[in-house]
Amino acid sequence: MSVLLTATCVVPAVGAVVTAALPAGTTEARRTNAKAVSLVFSAATLALAAAVATRFDPHGARYQLTESYSWIRSFGITFSLGVDGIGAVLALLTAVLVPIIMLASWHDADPGPTDPDGTVDPGTFERRRRTQGFFALILAVEAMVIVSFYATDLFLFYVFFEAMLIPMYFLIGGFGDRAGGPESARQRSYAAVKFLLYNLLGGLVMLAAVIGLYVIAQDQGFGTFDLPTLTSAIADGKLQLTGTAEKALFLGFFFAFAVKAPLWPLHTWLPNAMGEATAGTAVLITAVVDKVGTFAMLRFCLGLFPHASKTFAPAILVLSLIGIVYGALLAVGQKDIKRLVAYASISHFGFIIMGIFALTSQGQSGATLYMVNHGISTAAWMLVAGFLISRRGSRLIADYGGVQKVAPVLAGTFLIGGLATLSLPGLAPFVSEFLVLVGTFTRYPAIGIVATFGIVLAALYALLLYQRTMTGPVKDGVRTMPDLKARELAVVAPLVALTILLGVYPKPLTDLVNPSVNATLSQVHQTDPAPAHPVAATSGGEQK
Length: 544
Prior knowledge:
By secondary structure, this protein is mainly alpha-helical. The protein is built from 22 helices and 4 strands. Strands 1-2 form a two-stranded antiparallel sheet. A two-stranded antiparallel sheet has the order 3-4. It is globular. The model is unreliable at about 115-130 and about 535-544 (pLDDT under 50).
């Protein structure tokens, strides 16, 4: 039995413990050591996640590199891991982004000149912003997210689905954005509590659904939480759920995933969390943690409750459509750079969920690619925005202007991030958004047509943000702004390269995810709609 999946999960967890155990960062040398150790562990995790992705055979079994260890035997709970194409790709995305986030956040946990309450007390500030604690929390989140992508035991998935909230709570509340103003500490606390309460509520509802499914399965001779066993039994008709029970269980699972995704109207925690967190933590939220919600919709909602998924699909598509337009409209009106990116992400998650519940191969393939491409493009946009904010000390759009004249490289990379966000052809998000819209239109033409307005609005908020911050007269606070430094270029360069590469050549990703997408569609007994105007039979090269 291979232990590659376990190793990929354990290495960042060990890294978190080792980093947290290092001596307190009272000197620059100690802080640098903590950062370097955490970066080494994240690089090792990236190597392992890449090995998992390369060893995965798209034409092989649904779940590969499987591992299973007894955990709570009396309830049939095991520590079971297995990877499909979608899980392999998303775990690799996580492993790619975490070292980039660490490099971008290199000085985010360093002591500042003042305490968060405004008094000069570097010692107190140091204790609240312990460098090794910050980087250990990032590694802990990475470990829990990767377990969630690999878990094939329902209870195991639930435990880590909830556990990742704890380190995220401390990252938001304890290591927030220094550009938040005098009320920053209070706002961070509010954002962290709101994030935790919303997601805990969703998790508790899911726990009730997990227990309900186990009880029903046990009554029919399937006393297990093993996902492949349950989905196979449901597909073969050996495990039968009544219509009411299946719908109730589906809603329990879906509610938790919709909160984490986030889907309108359960999204309100995201703008607060991203606005008050550091830029690196904001990327960790939207590009990594939130992907667990959309991934789980594919793996658990559609696999375990196929009939309920088809029943609720139209309603979920309407909610997704509202999220697309609502998020984009609010992004247009934002005065805060980070909140603008947060509302843009709400719009993008609407596209992802729409692709999943269109129940077509194009839609689900596009949704999976969108999870990856959104993670990369939003990371580039938000991290460059973070570099910009750290230079000026303000998140307000009105405080900027003429940046491209004093920091052209920063402005250029910010433009690429914005163009990727609006899905410019040739950049990675375009491929995924196109597939989502095509896949939706073939089954729900009206929803597909209205959703295209989200693209127009994306162009509006992305280009307006660039125009207001980067062009025009140079504002006083911008005149001495330095351009991107070597470390910052090392952060942005791989993200820009991936955005262009996957926009031109997405085949490596589609080859990995398409077999898993097709398997998911077969579980819900769904096929792609026939073309509305099939090509007529031909003879001798001419239409009859």
